[in-house]
Amino acid sequence: MDPRQVLFELLSDRVLLAAAADGILTEQEQTTLLWPHPPRAKGRARWSVADLFLLDELGDVLVRTPSLGHVILDEAQDLSPMQLRAVGRRCATGSVTVLGDLAQGTTPWATTSWDVAMAHLDKPDFHLEELERGFRVPAAVLGFASRLLPLIAPDLRAPQAIRTNPGRLSILPVPDPVVAVVDRVQVALRSAGTVGVIVPDADLPEHLAAMKDARIDFSVLGVHDPGAVDHRVQLVPAGLAKGLEFDQAVVVEPARIVAAEPDLRTGLRRLYIVLTRAVSGLDVVHGMPLPGPLVD
Fold first, then answer.
1. Which of 73, 131, 140, 227 has CA atoms 20 to 30 A from the CA of 113?
2. Distances (CA, A) of 21 to 11, 24, 42
3. pLDDT tens for residues 222-279?
4. pLDDT tops 60 at residue 149
5. pTM of the model
6. Domain layout of the chain by residue ranges
């Protein structure tokens, strides 16, 4: 038997799926899974990313996946149950080191607790080491962002910055955020280091135009430019901010960053990531009211 053939038949044949899913999936769930226009053969199927983990599970049922001695898994908070199962069978008889931050889960299926994630990895007995000290984000910025933790990761203790310099935090309510951002970037350029301007994804075009009009040298993250050079200023859609850091960050319209995500928890987690990109100073520029937890 071939995993692709099995999955092709399940997703194409209503009668076969109903027999396999009897007592497990509702009729509506079965309808959701079925391909509305099935391909004529498995070779013509256009497998989605989610399908790949179903195929991986099927492959393990047919031919047992060999286990490694040890697996190191990073950014584990963003993995779905099926993705965690795929990792777990690769360390079925071995050990695993899992790293992640529940407050930085940015997928709708992000795990809610390490107990849940480790159960899907089939490692229910585990030691949890909570890393509470932060060396990158200054105390003023970290304290501001940590106001979101009770809503996005209520079981986490607020991290503590170990740097003696508390950093700089400015909250700037303005009538026109686009104009104000250009001003803040020009001020930031008077100091050394990089500047990240993090904006709601949908607002990228107007900020791009405004910075061009102001003759600021900048690059846009996620836009390929063969002739691009390294610029001190980067314009960053909020959806791409994860993993980045800047000496100074300018965050625009937190409320719109939150609203762009499919649910409130995911939106606030995205905002937490965005706010913690600053290494020295953070300017929060907003025309709309700040999300409730950030209001002093």
1. 140
2. 12, 5, 21
3. 875 655 567 899 999 999 999 999 999 999 999 999 999 999 999 999 999 999 999 9
4. yes
5. 0.82
6. 3-120, 133-294
Residues present in the chain in total: 296
Say how far apart CA 267 and CA 275 lie, in whole Å: 12
Q: Which residues, at least 6 apart from 245, have a Cβ–Cβ distance to it below 8 Å? A: 136, 196, 277, 278, 279
CATH topology of domain 133-294: Rossmann fold (3.40.50)
Contact 262, 148 (CB under 8 A): no
Distance CA 120, CA 114 (A): 10
CA distance 91 to 72: 10
| 4, 172, 230 from 182: Cα distances, Å | 53, 13, 19
pLDDT digits (tens, 9 = 90+) for 40-87: 888 899 999 999 999 999 999 999 999 999 999 999 999 999 999 999
pLDDT one-digit tens code per residue, 216-237: 999 999 875 655 567 899 999 9
Taking a C-beta distance cutoff of 8 angstroms, is the pair 144, 166 a contact?
no
State the residue for tokens 């949908």.
202
Contacting residues for 3 by C-beta, under 8 A, at least 6 apart = 55, 58, 59, 62
